[in-house]
Amino acid sequence: MHGGNVHAIQRQTGIQISTLLDFSANINPLGIPNALLEIMKASLEESVHYPDPDYHRLYESMARFFQCDQDRLVIGNGAAHVIHELLTLLQPQKVLLMAPTFSEYRQALEKCDTTIITLSLSSEETFDLSLDQLEKQLQQGINLLILCNPNNPTGRLISISQMKQVLAMCRDHRCRLLVDEAFIDFTTNESIDSLVKETAHWQELMVIRAFTKIFAIPGIRLGAAVLGDVNLASRVRTHLVPWSVNAVAESMADFLNTQEAANYLSRSVALVTAEREWIFSKLQKIAGLKPVPGSANYLLVALDESAPPVEALQQYLLQHGIMIRNCSNYEGLHHHWFRVAVRRREENQKLIDHLNCFLTQNAQN
Ligand SMILES: Cc1ncc(COP(=O)(O)O)c(C=O)c1O
């Protein structure tokens, strides 16, 4: 269902995980920062103790990192954990979701007694959100609107000025707004485009952030929510299972506000921006492929209708040890869509070479 399932690929094909080139999960190609790795290794020694049940140091450090009030924060075992806990506590009656978007919102809502309405984003409009259409949907008594910014899998970013219009609409319609910013750290202007600072002004706003993607720790897990509603934040914190965040993830507190972290973040954005532009320009030149311009560390790509379905491409690439994300199980996409992560140049070059080979071979047949 998700990208990055290297374990399933190893089971099915016998290819060793260490030899796989994984373009299916969107993880920082720089890997775990060295200074963080050292801190985390040291924290393993401390793991005979429980983590602090109140996560004092982590809350303090994260509030400083996000420049938000500590009482707005909820920290959890990855962004997915925070999303599930928040939604199951909220039990919203009527929710508006985009299609395509990240599947976990629906998964979480299926545990609630919720009516889900979907707004289809059109590929002709590069999957951009139309505020007119949104307004019409909100008039139907929606209690919660969920947006992913930048959206997964499209990579499209909603600007801060549009987001403020969305917030105003939500306020008019008494609707909460959950914005998942799991990938915003990879965009050029995170400090401008993120809604975290707006939580001080909008009671209805809930922002999700992930540390798994940007610090390349999906196996360690760490995520957060910053909420406009401090009472809700307090309720979610009490609702969480104690010690949900392990001691290794907890040690992020000692790294987040260091100069090393700041340098790593700016190097990451520079690398991802340059490589995304490079891959995009190469993909555009391959006959039979159409990439969607994106702002994150991945790109959504369409195969021509005349080309074989994405499963054939997936199989072909796998024979060369390359994994891509087949997007046919995203609501609103079909068997000609796939997503690739942005990695380092040598790896990106390998992907482009194999995509070229596949499409040239198929054009000749
Ligand atoms: C949009 C989005 N939000 C949240 C998550 C979950 O992140 P985490 O690994 O921190 O739980 C993902 C994972 O792919 C995602 O794509």
Automatic annotation (TrEMBL):
Enzyme Commission identifier(s): 4.1.1.81
Function: Decarboxylates L-threonine-O-3-phosphate to yield (R)-1-amino-2-propanol O-2-phosphate, the precursor for the linkage between the nucleotide loop and the corrin ring in cobalamin.
GO molecular function: threonine-phosphate decarboxylase activity
Transmembrane segment boundaries: none
Entry-linked CDD domains: AAT_like (cd00609)
PANTHER family on file: HISTIDINOL-PHOSPHATE AMINOTRANSFERASE-RELATED, THREONINE-PHOSPHATE DECARBOXYLASE
Entry keyword Protease: no
Named cofactor requirement(s): pyridoxal 5'-phosphate
Alphabetical keyword list: Cobalamin biosynthesis, Lyase, Pyridoxal phosphate
Source species of the chain: Anoxynatronum sibiricum
Pathway recorded for this protein: Cofactor biosynthesis; adenosylcobalamin biosynthesis
Signal sequence residues: none
Protein name (record): threonine-phosphate decarboxylase
Reactions this protein catalyses: O-phospho-L-threonine + H(+) = (R)-1-aminopropan-2-yl phosphate + CO2
Residue ranges constituting the Aminotransferase class I/classII large domain according to the UniProt record: 20-355
InterPro entries recorded: Aminotransferase_I/II_large, CobD, PyrdxlP-dep_Trfase, PyrdxlP-dep_Trfase_major, PyrdxlP-dep_Trfase_small
